Every structure is written in structure tokens, then in C-alpha cells.
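Extended Data, panel c. Modelled sequence:
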Amino acid sequence: MKARVPRRGILFVSHDATRTGAPIALLHLLRWFKKNGDRPFSVLLGGGGELVGDFEELANTWSMDCSRWRPDALRRGLLTAAGLGAWGRRAEERDVRRFAARRSPALVYANSIASARVIDVLAPQASILTHVHELDFMFDALSSPSLALLLGKTSQFVACSCAVRENLIRGHEVAPERVETVHESIPVDQVAAQRPRGHVLQELHIPADALLVVGSGTTSWRKGSDLFIQLARVISRQRPGVYFAWIGGGSLLEFAQAEHDIRAAELGKKIRFTGGVATPADYLAAADVFVLTSREDPYPLVCLEAAVLQKPIVCFANAGGMPEFVEGDCGFVVPYLDVAAMADRVIYLLDSSERRLTMGAAARRKVAQRHDISKAAPRILEIIERTIAQSTLVKTSA
């Protein structure tokens, strides 16, 4: 009797392991894959972050972090501190190629176009599937020979929203048959607040009976943290009893800029910037309305989490994929950068608990029906297997 030949595995590549959308989306997929898939897999990270340990719990993981070379190289006098960078990069690239070669993957899964630099280092012989979580601004920001190489070598793309698919086809000349849309997804039954609303409001120094508007993301231009402050200013003039909280980390400069605007707009008593938090669901659950002030956001997971917690969502048109979710029943889509229109719709919701409950319940139903990881992951697995099969067929024919 012939021994069963083990199936070749998959090498999942993430640009880093920070607590941001694309790495979190990959973790959701890998947790499902570990329970339900039958191929071995490993993970290659382009950099570190808070989630490295989460990836290591799921698979053999390598992080391209040259810090591991510093103490030994300097102690042994191999390099000066000034010369360490290039040496460390060369050593790291060598080890990354060895890590991949030992696994001989059937497919390399590039999770986001930000993985392009890592793919360039790998120079993989296996087929590449690229899961795109970015729109045009990020394509421009990440533009490089490595990105052009990734786009050219990718056999199949998965787009996280229809907006992303259209951008790939129209903006980057990717053939439509090479792109499939699988909307972002989350483990719906795992999204829950760990603390009562009253405890969260007390921590934020907000009155227990106050109405709360929450936004989330890094404190960056793309996420529109400055627009959130403008929104708070407009609403506060009409509804003085409303408070605002922004959940998410950022650089010292970005926080200083936000603090400057808050102080100059005399909003210090009304708006809170929490920084990064370990349990964002606590703050989302405390909200009465969730606002997405992003200038560009392909399909943010935080909106799906807010929907699970039955929060109506107000977002901008032409800013990414969230209008595909909100539609006409889960909140409102207002013209791009129209802060006054966003304030009007938020106030409309704040003035009626019944409207908030109705739209929040619709959001919960929709995310459970369309965006649970148990529905999205099998589709991605099917695309993976089809890409591997097509690659095998091409090699056999050749």
C-alpha cells in the first residue's frame, strides 16, 4: 500500500504584526484555517508588533526583525553600530529564504500589498495569491519596484471590498478574472464587551447619562481623526450634552496635533483620545453612534465589530467600501468630507433611541449573515485550492 504523500503547505506573509486591520484579518483567517483546513502552513512577518505571539501560537512563524542580530554582532566586534543595518538586512534576507525553502510551499499568500517588500526578498517559485486590503492612496504611498513585481507575479487576487476590486481593475489594469471579492469578516460570536458601559464612561470621565459618539483608527490623516474633532465641534454647538471618544493609537506628533486642535476648539471637556486599547469592544459597546471619518478605508473591521454590538454607522461616500455595508438600513452615507452632513445624521440618530435601536439591530443581522469568518474563510480556501490546482496544471503541461 502506497504511503500518503503529505500535502504541500501554504506560506502566509504579513507585512507586520501590529494591531491593525490587515494583520488582524489574517489572524481571523488562520484561526479558522487551523481548525478546518487540511494543509500545513507557516507565517512570515515583515516586521514585529503586538500580535507576533498570536501568530506564533498558530504556526511556525518568522519575523524579519533585524534586532535579533544586534547584541551578538556588536559584542563580537563583527560590526560597528553604523554598519549593522546593511549587514543585518543581508543576514535576515538569507534566513528568510532558508525559512521558505525548507517548507517548499505550494502557494505564497501575500496578505496586503504592503507585503511586497517581503515577497521581493523571498523571490518565491510558488504561485502567489495576494489579498488586497488597500485603495489608491495606499497604492501610491507604497509604490515601488517591489509592488510592481508583486502585482505582476500574482496569479490571483482577493479584494476585501467591491471598491478595492474596482480600483485593481480600473486603476492598476488587473484583469477582472484575476480578482474575486470576499468582504472582510470577523468571528461574530467573539465580539463582546468585557466591562459595563458605566465603567467605561467613568474611565473616560464622561457623565453616566451622556450620549457618546465613538470613532476609531490610528490618529492619522487617512483615518480622519482631524475630521472627528471637526465633527465634535459642529455637534457640540447644537447638542452640548454629547461626548466623543476616539479609539486608536498613533505617533507622538499625531497626538500632539490632535491635542492642539482640541484645545484651540475648546473641546477639552467633550472629547477623549484613548490611544491604543486592549479591549476596543468595550468602547464600541459604550457608544450610541459609531462614525467612520476615514478619507480612505477599504472595509474596516472596526465597523463590523460596531455592527455586532448593534451600533448604527455614519460614514462618507467615495471613501472606500463601508457604504457597501451601511446601505440604507444600518446608518447613513453622507457626501465625502461633508462634516456638516455627517453631524446632521448623527444628531438625527442621537435624538431618537428608537431609530438607533432599529438601525443597530439591522447592522447586527447583516454582519451575522454576510460577514462571519465561518462564511468568508471557506470561500478564501476554495480560491487558494483553485489557484494551487491551476498552477500545478500549468507546470504539468509545461
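Confidence is low (pLDDT under 50) at residues 66-84. This feature is highlighted in the accompanying rendering.
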